[in-house]
């Protein structure tokens, strides 16, 4: 049988060059002188088949098997040997017809590479392929003198391996060993898992207690949260509703007082004026009454005098004395004439005054119209300005140029920390710069200024938690100012139209805020016009943004953004100044309106007086007109009588006046004066009446107004308290929501507005109870539920794994017992069979005697050692120690050949295995192996011609080059001639 087909070695021991041997025969002999390298072939084969012990390869260290150089050849860097096997009968445990096994070792690194058919494999894979082939370590497949000694001298337990190999249970044993190792690993795993599951069980028990506490806590907390926030929401909604009503009432009352208070002041002023007027009228009435009395007294005196004369004259008229009668008539006519003239003067004066007063009244009416119109115009303007003011104030408060995020932060400023305001809150500038600064600020106007990064982070968390939008935060202590280079500033300052650096145009800026403003406006320049801006940009290399007062922009790098923009309310930043201005205008308008109102009152008073006077004059005109007419009728009567009597026309008197005339003249004068005084007196008396009435009316109105104001004040006081109370409720709610639930009021209202199923009172009691209960629960492991879940999952997994491993362990135990069973069967069969063959083979080789093998521990066949009981013919020896070298060889060969009989090894290597035998035994030896060569390939290193003769092919090992083995094919005769120990004739 040919099993090993090819041997290739390079760099292995003395095989410096590539040495190829084609083993195409069943029995190959290797011959050669001592030290020529024959055994190196066996070493090479052993090495390839996985020999780990360098000592058994006759070296000390791994480099010793690499060609170490000779006089003519340098040392090799690696050793490589390949054996090619014919595996068509599947002797090897691999499903290939031809198997080439290679081992390679590099000098110095000690690492071996193994290949099967060129593919790198592990040593273990290689050993698995050769198991039970008789070529493994400790089998009798490779026999040298050393093997024979080992066989004879080794302990029965070690010797057992030979028989295991023969029984073909090596594979089982390897599998069992593997399975046992696996079992050990499995057991270790199982123990580890059991420990872990026990530990986990303990943890789970603890965690279950903790988790149930946490669950209870969470349920309570959840209920508390729902109740507390719902109640807060209810309180806030109610407070807001009440606030609406309160602020409506406050607005109404305040607005009402805003109107009533000036009205009251105006009324008081009016009252003072009227009282003043009344006083003046009073004085005038007294004065005119006194004057009138005086005049009346005088008139009365004169009237008495006049009536005496008048009586006399009447007597005279009725007398019979013609001249007295004529004179008396004349006297009467003269005086009537005088009286008529005097009355006419009075009448004319009244008419004149009537005219004048009417004209004056027209003027006053015109004035009244003017005043009323002016008051109307100013009031209209005032109302517009007041509306504008409210709008501006609302704008300042509501910040419509701020997005949701900024507003949310500012609205919850008190609930957060470190918020200084939005950038807009710090921007104050001259109105003329407002447009440019607004553009310069852009969206930054709504950035939130905070103290520290931590404050900013808290705000961001707040916005995220409440889904309340996005904004930019500027921590004052972190902001890096962006400034214009001093040399560029120097240049700019010399260019006409440079207004300033935007950051320097901000007024009354706190030092702390400066870095924020510098970071936004520090590199922006304001210029008067686009020309100036271009000039500045040109000389500063287009490095800066330049904005003109009307809002055109030259960007860095030179692009221009321009056009018309109307910024509402100066872009909000000049708002405070605007508000102040509008307030001033409103105040001045109100002062003017008041002045005009007073003038109107005075005008009306004057009109009233005039109308009195006009009425008076009108009555006087009628009165005097009548009187004159009556007097004239009387005078005509007397004139007719006089002319009839005197027969001459009446001529007014020239020259000396009579006493009667003088009295009448005086009387007329006095009556004239009296009429004037009376006019004044009546006018003033009337005035007084009207003034009194007016004063009464004003006092009434003042009283009512005062009462209304006081009532409003009471309402304001009461509702101020209510407002404060409700604001406090909302503030507390905000703080509570933020501190405890990190929630805004808006989010709370959105999520917790569903009505509760219990009354508010019950809810509040429950909140108190829950708070107490939660307080009593003390510290707890909040992560317990997660930990429990995690540990339970882990426990389940580990438990499943534990069961799986326990099952695997059972499987392993089963397969071990099956392996044991099979091995037990195969092994005892083999031993039995060997014992059938061994005595025969022994007898053949020894020419008699007996030999058998025995278990040292028959009860434990699978571990028992194997003892060889050999008894050469005529000897009573039981121990192998007592045998000679040749006898030991024969015993070993007997066992080998018995084994070969029952289980054929594919290859047997004999390294001078027969050297200790005498020629007759050599012949028997040679015959046997030759007989076996049908089933087994033999590789024989020999010096014995009898053995050489039986070989099919002979290779001679020579050292043509010193230190380097060369293998050559030799003929039997050459071999015998050159390499045999014994001479053929001697055999
Ligand atoms: P004998 O018939 O005496 O048993 P042999 O023919 O079996 O001899 P080997 O033992 O195979 O001879 O070879 C021994 C030779 O191999 C020696 O010459 C030894 O110097 C040489 N040798 C051993 N190892 C190396 C090595 N690493 N490099 C070169 N030569 C080596």
What does this structure look like?
There is one protein chain. With 987 residues, the protein is an alpha/beta fold. Among the domains are: 1-135 and 915-953, 3-Layer(aba) Sandwich (Rossmann fold); 428-573, Alpha-Beta Plaits (2-Layer Sandwich). Helix content is 62%, strand content 11%. The chain has 21 helices and 22 strands. The strands form five sheets. The protein has a six-stranded antiparallel sheet. Strands 8-19-20-3-21-22 form a six-stranded mixed sheet, with helices on both faces. It has a five-stranded mixed sheet with strand order 12-13-14-15-16, with helices on both faces. The radius of gyration is 72 Å and the shape is rod-shaped. The model has no long low-confidence stretch (mean pLDDT 88). Bound molecules: adenosine-5'-triphosphate.
What level of helicity do the residues show? Answer: 55-70%
The side-by-side strand order for the widest beta sheet comes to 2-1-4-5-6-7
- Which value, in Å, is the CA radius of gyration? 72 Å
Choose one word for the global shape: rod-shaped
Give the strand tally: 22
Oligomeric composition of the shown chains: single chain
Q: pLDDT below 50 for ≥5 consecutive residues: which ranges?
A: none
What is the topological layout?
Elements: E1 4-10, E2 19-22, E3 27-31, H1 38-48, E4 78-86, E5 98-106, E6 112-116, E7 119-121, H2 123-130, E8 142-144, H3 145-153, H4 156-167, H5 170-318, H6 322-398, H7 404-411, E9 419-422, H8 431-441, E10 448-450, H9 453-465, E11 473-475, H10 486-493, E12 498-501, H11 514-521, E13 524-527, H12 530-539, E14 545-548, E15 553-554, E16 560-561, H13 575-646, H14 659-741, H15 745-751, H16 760-776, H17 784-846, E17 850-855, E18 866-871, H18 885-902, E19 907-911, H19 919-932, E20 937-941, H20 945-950, E21 953-961, E22 964-970, H21 972-979
Parallel strand pairs: 3-20, 3-21, 8-19, 10-11, 13-14, 19-20
Antiparallel strand pairs: 1-2, 1-4, 4-5, 5-6, 6-7, 9-10, 12-13, 14-15, 15-16, 17-18, 21-22
Helix pairs in contact: 3-18, 4-17, 5-6, 5-13, 5-14, 5-16, 5-17, 6-13, 6-14, 13-14, 17-18, 18-19
């Amino acid at each position: 049988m040919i099993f090993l087909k090819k041997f290739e070695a390079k760099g292995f021991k003395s095989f410096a060059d590539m040495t190829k041997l084609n083993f195409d025969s069943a029995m190959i002999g290797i011959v050669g002188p001592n030290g020529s390298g024959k055994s190196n072939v066996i070493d090479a084969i052993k090495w390839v088949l996985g020999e780990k012990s360098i000592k058994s390869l006759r070296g000390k260290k791994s480099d010793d098997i690499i060609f170490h150089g000779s006089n003519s050849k340098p040392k090799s860097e690696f050793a490589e040997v390949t054996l090619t096997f014919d595996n068509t009968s599947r002797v090897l445990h691999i499903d290939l017809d031809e198997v080439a096994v290679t081992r390679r070792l590099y000098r110095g690194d000690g690492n071996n590479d193994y290949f099967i058919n060129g593919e790198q494999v592990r040593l273990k894979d290689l050993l698995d392929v050769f198991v039970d082939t008789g070529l493994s370590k400790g089998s009798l497949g490779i026999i040298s003198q050393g093997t024979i000694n080992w066989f004879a001298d080794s302990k029965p337990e070690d010797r057992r391996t030979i028989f295991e190999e023969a029984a073909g249970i090596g594979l089982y044993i390897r599998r069992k060993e593997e399975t046992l190792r696996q079992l050990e690993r499995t057991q270790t795993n199982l123990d580890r898992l059991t420990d872990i599951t026990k530990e986990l069980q303990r943890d789970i028990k603890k965690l279950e207690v903790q988790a149930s506490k946490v669950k209870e806590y969470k349920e309570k907390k959840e209920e508390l949260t729902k109740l507390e926030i719902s109640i807060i929401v209810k309180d806030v909604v109610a407070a807001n509703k009440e606030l609406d009503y309160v602020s409506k009432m406050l607005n109404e009352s305040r607005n009402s007082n805003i109107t009533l208070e000036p009205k009251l002041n105006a009324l008081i002023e009016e009252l003072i004026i009227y009282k003043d007027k009344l006083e003046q009228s009073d004085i005038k009435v007294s004065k005119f009454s006194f004057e009138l009395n005086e005049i009346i007294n005088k008139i009365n005196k004169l009237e008495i005098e006049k009536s005496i004369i008048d009586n006399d004259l009447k007597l005279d008229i009725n007398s019979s004395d013609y001249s007295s009668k004529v004179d008396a008539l004349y006297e009467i006519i003269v005086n009537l004439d005088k009286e008529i003239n005097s009355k006419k003067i009075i009448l004319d004066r009244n008419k004149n005054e009537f005219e004048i007063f009417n004209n004056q009244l027209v003027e006053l009416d015109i004035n009244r119209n003017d005043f009323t119109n002016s008051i109307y115009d100013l009031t209209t303007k005032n109302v517009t300005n007041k509306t504008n003011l409210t709008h501006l104030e609302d704008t300042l408060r509501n910040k419509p140029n701020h997005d949701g995020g900024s507003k949310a932060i500012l609205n919850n400023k008190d609930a957060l920390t470190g918020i200084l305001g939005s950038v807009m809150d710090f921007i104050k500038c001259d109105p003329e710069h407002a447009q440019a600064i607004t553009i310069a600020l852009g969206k930054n106007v709504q950035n939130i200024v905070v103290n520290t990064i931590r404050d900013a982070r808290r705000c961001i968390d707040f916005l995220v938690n409440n889904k309340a939008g996005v904004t930019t935060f500027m921590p004052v202590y972190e902001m890096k100012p962006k400034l214009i280079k001093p040399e560029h500033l120097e240049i700019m300052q010399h260019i006409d139209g440079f207004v300033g650096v935007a950051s320097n145009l901000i007024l009354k800026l706190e030092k702390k805020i400066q870095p924020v403003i510098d970071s936004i406006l520090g590199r922006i320049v304001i210029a008067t016009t686009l020309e100036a801006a271009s000039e500045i940009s040109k000389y500063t290399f287009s490095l800066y943004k330049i904005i003109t007062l009307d809002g055109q922009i030259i960007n860095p790098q030179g692009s221009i953004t321009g056009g018309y923009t109307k910024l509402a309310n100066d872009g909000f930043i000049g708002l405070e100044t605007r508000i102040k201005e509008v307030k001033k205008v409103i105040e001045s308008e109100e002062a003017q309106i008041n002045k005009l109102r007073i003038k109107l009152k005075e005008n009306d008073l004057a009109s009233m007086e005039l109308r009195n006077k006009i009425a008076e004059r009108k009555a006087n005109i009628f009165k005097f007109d009548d009187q004159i007419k009556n007097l004239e009728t009387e005078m005509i009567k007397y004139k007719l009588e006089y002319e009839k009597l005197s027969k001459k026309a009446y001529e007014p008197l020239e020259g000396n006046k009579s006493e009667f005339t003088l009295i009448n003249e005086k009387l007329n004068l006095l009556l004239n004066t009296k009429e004037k005084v009376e006019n004044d007196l009546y006018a003033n008396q009337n005035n007084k009446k009207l003034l009194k009435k007016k004063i009464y009316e004003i006092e009434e109105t003042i009283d009512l107004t005062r009462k209304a104001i006081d009532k409003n004040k009471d309402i304001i006081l009461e509702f101020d308290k209510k407002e404060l109370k409700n604001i406090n409720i909302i503030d507390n709610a905000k703080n509570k929501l933020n501190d405890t639930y990190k929630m805004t009021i808006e989010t709370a209202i959105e999520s917790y507005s569903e009505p509760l199923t219990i009354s508010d009172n019950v809810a509040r009691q429950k909140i108190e109870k829950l708070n107490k209960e939660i307080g009593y629960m003390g510290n707890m492991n909040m992560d317990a539920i997660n930990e429990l879940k995690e540990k339970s999952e882990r426990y389940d997994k580990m438990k499943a794994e534990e069961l799986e491993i326990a099952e695997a362990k059972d499987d392993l135990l089963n397969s071990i017992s099956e392996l044991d069973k099979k091995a037990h069967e195969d092994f005892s069969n083999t031993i039995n069979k060997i014992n059938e063959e061994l005595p025969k083979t022994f007898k053949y080789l020894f020419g008699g005697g007996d030999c058998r093998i025995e278990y040292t521990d028959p009860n434990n066949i699978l571990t028992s050692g194997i003892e060889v009981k050999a008894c050469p013919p005529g000897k009573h020896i039981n121990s192998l120690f007592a045998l000679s070298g040749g006898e030991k060889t024969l015993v070993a060969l007997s066992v080998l050949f018995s084994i070969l009989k029952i289980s054929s090894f594919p290859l047997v290597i004999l390294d001078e295995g027969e050297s200790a035998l005498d020629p007759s035994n050599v012949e028997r030896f040679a015959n046997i192996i030759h007989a076996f060569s049908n089933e087994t390939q033999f590789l024989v290193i020999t010096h014995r011609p009898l053995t050489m003769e039986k070989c099919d092919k002979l290779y001679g090992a020579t050292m043509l080059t010193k230190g380097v083995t060369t293998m050559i094919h030799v003929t039997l005769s050459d071999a015998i001639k050159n390499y045999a120990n014994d001479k053929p004739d001697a055999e």
